[in-house]
Specification:
45% of the residues lie in helices and 20% in strands. The protein is α+β, with helices and mostly antiparallel strands and 647 residues long. The protein has four domains: 184 residues, no CATH class; 99 residues, Calcium-transporting ATPase, cytoplasmic transduction domain A, CATH 2.70.150; 140 residues, Rossmann fold (3-Layer(aba) Sandwich); 147 residues, Calcium-transporting ATPase, cytoplasmic domain N, CATH 3.40.1110.10. The strands form six sheets. Strands 10-26-25-24-11-22-23 form a seven-stranded mixed β-sheet, sandwiched between helices. Helix 6 runs antiparallel to helix 10, helix 8 packs antiparallel against helix 23 and helix 17 packs parallel to helix 19. The protein is elongated, with a radius of gyration of 34 Å.
């Protein structure tokens, strides 16, 4: 436009220069004005379209409540979220937004978490369960303790991850960047060549000016630069709307190349809430009394955080084991094997308030409760996320085991492999073990003083969505592999329910990454899906690590993609979203390349000798603006992404 304007000024002031060469002094003032107008209009439309790519972030930020009803000093008060601190007790009534993350202390309700997790069905919440800020309370009233506020809430972390992902570059973008780096010098070379050819060779200065201006105006590196990042922005935002957090453009791009999906069993395929379904003792041994043996096992398992340990303790209570439990010394958790400890015979009991005969697990007594009630005393002892501030140590002379001996008991609870390693024979209950494992149950041996005394069967129900999710993954042409530390019989029984053909069972936590490397050695692009601390190395080793949002922070930190809801169907959605995004990016790049490949030669006048047709600079400006707008508009089609939509 500057060239056209200066040429017009020269023609206006010095028309004789052109007349002396038998040329008509033409001016292009209107062309310069129209070109600038079209370019500005194109930029306006482009910016409005690009603004829509950030709609997901604005939608997420708009979910946040403004105030919280906090209990302090025994009174309720409405406070701005900025003044809420971890440990505050907050009251939520039906229809209200939950202001921050926390744990339900009193009451129960159903909560709509669809805006965060993507799950449409409201979730039942009761005492001890977690709630997420920005979700909506539906039916009842409850009081919860704030655990994460401000930038530490799930919503704030989602917004941050989406912003970081939208600002990142996918590998395909680097190719476009390299091409763009040569684009401007190339266009300048074409423009100079066009001017020289038309003026020096063809002897037509007017045509030289028009064609040169046309080349400079119609060339559009903007379309190339917008092709990838706009699709990444819309794709990651759409993922967040579906409860899928994608950490960067590279993760989004790589997900469409996945060939093998490796699924951890506990908490990923199954619900991660195991329960004891079967229990048997070896009759005639010194500790064969069922309740007595359960008390010994529960005493050791009490110190473990493993879900199977919690299942044993809960079962012991349900069968009448009276608390307090016996004191345990030298507790040890052997990774992938089991737990062991020395249980006192002349027992030192831990009593958690109330009458000893009543016996109950420690009730949650958080610092928040004490603050709300105006108490200053903090938590003296904490175990298994329970505050034991009412700790009352009672020394008892009652005995748990053989009344003829006051020697402590060495109790070991664990796998068949561990029993074999310890040299403990399990022959007496082999038939029960085989039957339970064939029914997809995990078995754990109970040994006392080097002798098997009992066996428990533990079932962890398969998630209702797992069967359909695995079937959909198979239909997408993906290989599905199950990876677990459980025994081969149980693992194969569960795998058969999901039609999973390849199973790695009995794998210790430190061996999981090696199994992923083995699959990668077969030339496959591997994704690992897990939820526990022991899955973190495998998640990091995999080409794409996918963490279940209901799992541990360590697993999520090691992953590339996080599924907030924990529903395996989200894996299908994530891969389809990745494929749709890559198709969209390729479409954008194709449009941008084709536009420049054909439009620049036309603007240079290549068609004039054959058809007498020359591209007006005004039309060139309109075409340039339209190319950028079309690329952004095509990227916005991803906002209509759905699992059943073809791309």
């Amino acid at each position: 436009t500057g060239t056209a304007y200066l040429y017009s000024v020269f023609a206006t002031i010095f028309p004789s220069f052109f007349l002396a060469q038998n040329l008509q002094p033409e001016v292009y003032y209107e062309a310069a004005a129209v070109i600038i107008t079209l370019i500005l209009l194109g930029r306006l439309l482009e910016n409005r379209a690009r603004g829509q790519t950030s709609a997901a972030i604005r939608k997420l930020m708009g979910l946040q409540a403004k105030t919280a009803r906090v209990i302090r000093g025994g009174q309720e008060m409405d406070l701005p979220l900025e003044e809420v601190i971890p440990g505050d007790l907050i009251v939520v009534r039906p229809g209200e937004k939950i202001p921050v993350d926390g744990q339900v202390m009193e009451g129960s309700s159903t909560v709509d978490e669809s805006m965060v997790t993507g799950e449409p069905i409201p979730v039942k919440k009761q005492a001890g369960e977690e709630v997420i800020g920005a979700t909506i309370n539906k039916t009842g009233s409850f009081t919860f303790e704030a655990s994460r506020v401000g930038k530490d809430t799930v919503l704030a972390q989602i917004v941050q991850l989406v912003q970081e992902a939208q600002g990142s570059k996918a590998p395909i973008q680097r190719l476009a960047d390299r091409i763009t780096a040569w684009f401007v010098p190339g266009v300048m070379a074409v423009a100079i060549a066009t001017f020289v050819i038309w003026w020096k060779i063809m002897g037509n200065l007017s045509f030289a000016i028009i064609t040169t201006v046309g080349v400079l105006v119609i060339a559009c590196p903007c379309a190339l630069g917008l092709a990838t990042p706009t699709s990444i922005m819309v794709g990651t935002g759409k993922g967040a709307e579906n409860g899928i957090l994608i950490k960067g453009g590279d993760s989004l791009e790589l997900a469409h190349k996945i060939q093998t999906i490796v699924l951890d069993k506990t908490g990923t395929i199954t619900q991660g809430k195991p329960t004891v379904t079967d229990y048997v003792t070896v009759k005639g041994t010194a500790n064969s009394n069922e309740i007595r043996l359960l008390q010994l096992a529960a005493a050791v398992e009490w110190y473990s955080e493993h879900p199977l340990a919690e299942a044993v303790v809960q079962y012991a209570q349900s069968q009448g084991v009276q608390l307090p439990l016996p004191k345990v010394d030298n507790f040890e958790a052997v990774a992938g094997m089991g737990v062991q400890g020395i249980v006192s015979s002349s027992v030192e009991y831990l009593h958690f308030g109330g009458n000893k005969a009543e016996g109950s697990l420690a009730k949650p007594l958080p610092q928040a409760r004490q603050r709300a009630e105006g108490k200053e005393e903090g938590c003296k002892v904490e175990r298994n996320n329970h505050c034991l501030s009412e700790l009352d140590i009672i020394y008892s002379t009652s005995e748990v085991g053989n009344t003829d001996s006051k020697q402590p008991y060495v109790v070991q609870i664990g796998t068949q492999h561990w029993m074999d390693t310890l040299g403990i024979t399990t022959q007496s209950l082999q038939s029960q073990q085989q039957a339970w494992e064939a029914a997809a149950k995990t078995t754990a041996w109970i040994a006392v003083d080097g002798q098997v005394e009992g066996l428990v069967g533990i079932a962890d129900a398969v998630k209702s969505s797992s069967v359909e999710a695995v079937r959909n993954l198979h239909n997408m042409g993906l290989e599905v592999v199950m990876l677990t530390g459980d025994n081969p019989s149980t693992a194969k029984a569960i795998a058969s329910k999901l039609d999973i053909k390849r199973v790695f069972a009995g794998v210790k936590p430190d061996q999981k990454a090696a199994k992923i490397k083995t699959l990668q050695g077969e030339g496959k692009t591997v994704a690992m899906v897990g939820d526990g601390i022991n899955d973190a190395p495998a998640l990091a080793q995999a080409d794409v690590g996918i963490a279940i949002g209901t799992g541990t922070d360590i697993a999520m930190a090691a992953s590339d993609i996080t599924l907030i809801s924990g529903d395996l169907q989200s894996i299908v959605t994530a891969i389809k979203l990745s494929r749709a995004t890559m198709v969209n990016i390729r479409q954008n790049l194709f449009f941008a390349y084709i536009y420049n490949i054909f439009s620049i030669p036309i603007a240079a006048g290549i068609l004039y000798p054959f058809f007498g047709w020359l591209l007006n600079p005004v039309i060139a400006g309109a075409a340039m603006a339209l190319s950028s707008v079309s690329v952004v508009t095509n990227a916005l089609r991803l906002r209509k992404f759905g699992v059943g939509v073809r791309w």
